[in-house]
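Morning - flavin mononucleotide inputs below, output right after.
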Amino acid sequence: MDVLEAIKGRRSIRMYKADLVPEELMRVLVEAGQWAPTGANRQNWKFIAVTDPKLMRSVKRISPMMWGEAPAAIFICQDLTRSRAPPEGGSGRTTGFVSQNIMLAAYSLGLGTCPIGGFNRAAARDLLDVPDDMVPLLLITVGYPDETPEVRLRRPFSEVAYLNSCRNPWRVGDE
Ligand SMILES: Cc1cc2nc3c(=O)[nH]c(=O)nc-3n(C[C@H](O)[C@H](O)[C@H](O)COP(=O)(O)O)c2cc1C
């Protein structure tokens, strides 16, 4: 699939079919995350894929911002043995690279995803036996979409982009 098509076509999916996601596909998604760029190639990320339906019900219980049910999820975790950058700083920034890789790869495979920041980190630690040198930062739900959400429109291009100078908002077309 064309990358630009995937970037613009991807939507956050919050309603999934009950079908389970094959483990091979979950592996492809985690591998896509692993290929994200990291500062000095530190590769300070670890991934916990959750595919067990009972465990997914518990993930839902500890994630107040997760709407609906999802058959699978991936927790993106900082690996403190490779970088201790605070999650609110550098490592938080690169979570974006990792998660977008996973979400675009999923979209290209016909899977839906939704990034979820609203989960209880301490509860996730207990639930998934996460050691102290790993910090779960973001949860991405995964499954086969059971909805076609409306496009969440983006701000006008000229409101967010400048050409060469902030005195020169970048106007395109009839904007
Ligand atoms: C860091 C981050 C955290 C998010 N957390 C949640 C969340 O807790 N619950 C949720 O339903 N959506 C969450 N979202 C999804 C956003 O609401 C969604 O990406 C945004 O509305 C744009 O819609 P789109 O992804 O369909 O383009 C999160 C997105 C990001 C990037």
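Note: The mean pLDDT is 94.

O.
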